[in-house]
Amino acid sequence: MKSVNDDLNSDESDLYEHHRFVADKGQQPLRVDKFLMNFIENASRNKIQAAAKAGSIFVNGKAVKSNYKVKPGDEIRILLAHPPYEFLLVPEDIPLDIVYEDDDLLVVNKPAGMVVHPGHGNYSGTLINALTFHFENLPKNSNERPGLVHRIDKDTSGLLVVAKTELAMTHLARQFFEKTSEREYVALVWGNVEADEGRIEGNIGRNPKNRLQNKVFEGDDAEKGKSAVTYYKVTERLGYVTLVSCSLETGRTHQIRVHMK
Prior knowledge:
Helices cover about 15% and strands about 35% of the residues. By secondary structure, it is an alpha+beta fold. The longest helix is centred in the middle third of the chain and has 13 residues, at about 165-180.
C-alpha cells in the first residue's frame, strides 16, 4: 500500500485532512471503511462512514459508499472534516533521558513502553508530548511532528535524534533518506541462531489475514511484499535465546521482528 501526503488545508475556520492510498497487488477484497481504518491513525469507523455519506471517499476518481470492496491497484482518496487527534499536541511534563545536546539537535534515550508520537489508542504520554513541554518551537517534519527525524517501536528502547532547528531537520532527514547514517539494533530472539553472522532477505508486506501485522512473502507471492534485507551478527548465545546485533539495508515496518521469526 502506497500512501501519498496527509495534507491539512485551512479554509477560513475549517480544517480538512486529505489522504490518498494505492492498494497493494496482494490486497484482498475489503470494505473501504475497514481498509481506511487500518491506515488512518485515530480515524473511527463512524468518522469514515460519515465521510462516505458526504460523498468524500473516492475510488479511482468516483465517489463510493462505505461498503465498497477495495481491489488490488485501487486508488483511494478521502477528505476528512477535522484534523486527527495526533495533531492536537498537548505538552506534558515527562522526564527525558537526554544523552547529548547542542544548539542544533539532541539525542534522547527512549525507554521501552513509550510511544514516539500520538496515534490510535495513544493520545498522551508520548515522546512528542514530552519534547513539546521541554522545548519550544521545534521544527516540524513532513507529518507535522515537532523535532521528529525518525522513530522506533513502542516496545523498543534506544536512541532517537531530535532536530532543534529547521536546518538540522533538513540535513538529518536527508541523511536518513539517503541512508548515510548508521544505525545498530540489538535484539534478543528465540532459539539458537546457528550461523555466527548472516544476511536475511525476504519481501515484507502486510499480512492479508491481519492488516496490522507484517509477514514475509516468498515464492510466487514475493511481489506482494517490498524488498527487505537484514544483516545480523551473534553477540551472545543464551540457550533458548540468542542476542544479536542487526543492521538494516532497508527500513520496513517491524523488519527485524518479521525476519527473525
